[in-house]
Write a structure and sequence with these properties.
2 domains; Cytochrome Bc1 Complex, Chain A, domain 1; 13 strands; single chain
């Protein structure tokens, strides 16, 4: 129902947008109408303590109030509670995130995280199928959910006076979900049709899916969030039940409330609702390490399409330590230098300058649970080839590695990047997303402003260094779309009952 956060910096490559559900980021499938798109935000996980605790961050800069002044406590059952007061309007956003996404799935059961997300709206021991959504709608609220590679989340946007009601509803399905075989049989068909419409009938999404399957040979990021069709066809209600039992427990969840609320009152409600749910131990996660890449990989994807496309994925580091890592910040700004507006490198040099491409994009997400990639993609202009586009994009990065960038250009991109992150905090929904997002990947919500300060401190030499270090053949996987005749087949409307 929600988007997985988009990346924090430049505009996402088109191949990622084509692969995403609605406007969602590269790893998220939402489950219903979404609010207006947010600026990019990171993702998160909860480090829960065995007993209640309370902390509060102090702003790193005047613009940091949205992220740094959150109320934080942990219920005795291990569920972290984060509350951000914003009293500009009498509304609240209520979210529950589970640290369980498609990366936690096993071969043969791909797509189960997303299927369970659908099933969470199909009734509990006391609510009939669809009753949850009807009750939220009757309150004048809206609600949805989202599945990503790293997590699954659920949210409601309501008048503040209805907060206690949605907390009772959400805690009920955390503890008392009723997985009916009949409802599962209907919903799995909806998910399979979703896969057909959003991946198999869309060339850009198919390219992204095949690119990730080629980039990762061992890590579960190789699997699509929606799942492989053969796994969906063989999935049973017992598989969904096993997923719910394994991951939908307070110790594996984060509660986030943002809006016109009193943090102490929210804490009291959390104790009354979620605090009564017994926790179950979360099984230790086994390390899932992607082996070193032995050399350049290339694949071709044949699909009905009007234009060819090339997509390149380079294996690069992610942000693991806010203070200890520097390269991820430089990679974030490199993506913003390449793509994200009319004045960026790809637009100036490749689209408007040499006119090699009709479109060229770059994307990178430094905040995630698994390994990171830096993606470039483009569509050749008339008379040009995907090979031309590939060479032109790589040449632009090589130019930066050799010559650097003017300090004024880097300063401009920094200002745009930081402003985007600060302005997005005008949205209460975005504030809640940011709080949960950083936590779910193992960072802290209090890191938000420190990350911006690190971005501000990136130097031209650091940009040159990452441009020269990481964009080599031994880190590269290339997917090329070979257009096939389209014929009369076009993506149709979503099937009845499709929440996303």
């Amino acid at each position: 129902m929600t988007p997985q956060t988009q990346r924090r910096g430049a505009a996402r490559p088109a191949v990622l947008l084509a692969a995403a559900a609605l406007w969602v980021g590269l790893a998220t499938l939402p489950s219903a109408p979404l609010p207006a798109p947010l600026s990019p935000i990171p993702a998160a996980l909860a480090q829960s303590a065995p007993a209640p605790s309370s902390t509060a961050g102090s702003p790193a800069s005047p613009s940091s109030a949205a992220a740094a002044q959150a109320f934080e406590r942990t219920l005795p059952n291990g569920m972290k509670v984060l509350v951000k007061r914003d009293s500009r309007a009498p509304t609240a956003v209520h979210m529950v995130w589970y640290r369980a996404g498609s990366m936690d799935e096993v071969n043969g059961r791909t797509g189960v995280a997303h299927v369970l997300e659908h099933m969470m709206f199909k009734g509990t021991k006391t609510l009939a199928p669809g009753e949850f959504s009807r009750r939220v709608a009757a309150m004048g609220g809206r609600e949805n959910a989202f599945t990503s590679r790293d997590y699954t989340g659920y949210f409601q946007q309501i008048h503040t006076s209805r907060l206690a009601e949605v907390m009772r509803l959400e805690s009920d399905r955390m503890a008392n979900l009723n997985l009916s075989a009949d409802e599962f049989a209907k919903e799995i068909r909806v998910v399979m049709e979703e896969r057909r419409l959003r991946t198999e009938d869309r060339a850009g999404a198919l390219v992204y899916e095949q690119l990730m399957a080629a980039v990762f040979t061992a890590h579960p990021y190789r699997h699509p969030i929606v799942g492989w069709m053969s796994d969906l066809e063989s999935m049973t209600v017992a598989d969904a039940q096993a997923w719910y039992d394994a991951w939908y427990t307070p110790a594996n969840a984060i509660l986030v409330v943002a809006g016109d609320v009193d943090p102490e009152a929210v804490w009291a409600l959390a104790q009354e609702t979620y605090g009564r749910i017994p926790t179950r131990a979360v099984a230790p996660r086994k390390p899932q390490v992607e082996p070193p890449q032995p050399g350049l990989r290339r694949i071709q994807v044949k699909a009905p399409a009007e234009n060819p496309t090339v997509a390149m994925a380079f294996r690069v580091p992610k942000l693991e330590s806010v203070d200890g890592d520097r390269e991820p910040y430089a990679l974030e700004l490199l993506s913003s230098l390449l793509d994200g507006g009319d004045s960026t490198r790809f637009t100036r040099s490749i689209v408007r300058g040499s006119r090699v491409a009709n479109r060229a994009g770059a994307g990178y997400d430094m905040t995630q649970r698994g390994p990171a990639v830096f993606i470039l993609d483009g569509t050749p202009a008339e008379g040009r080839t995907t090979e031309d586009v590939e060479r032109a994009m790589r040449a632009e990065i090589e130019r930066i590695a050799k010559e650097g960038v003017p300090a004024a250009e880097l300063d401009r991109v920094k200002v745009q990047y930081v402003a985007g992150q600060v302005y997005k905090r005008d949205s209460v929904f975005a504030q809640a997303m940011e709080l949960a997002g950083l936590e779910i990947v193992g960072l802290s919500h209090r890191d938000a402003d420190r990350i911006l300060e690190k971005i501000r401190s990136v130097t031209v030499d650091e940009i040159r260094a990452v441009a020269g270090k990481y964009f080599t053949d031994d880190r590269l996987t290339v997917a090329t779309l070979l257009p096939q005749p389209i014929g009369d087949k076009r993506p149709g409307p979503a099937p009845a009952g499709l929440r996303h």
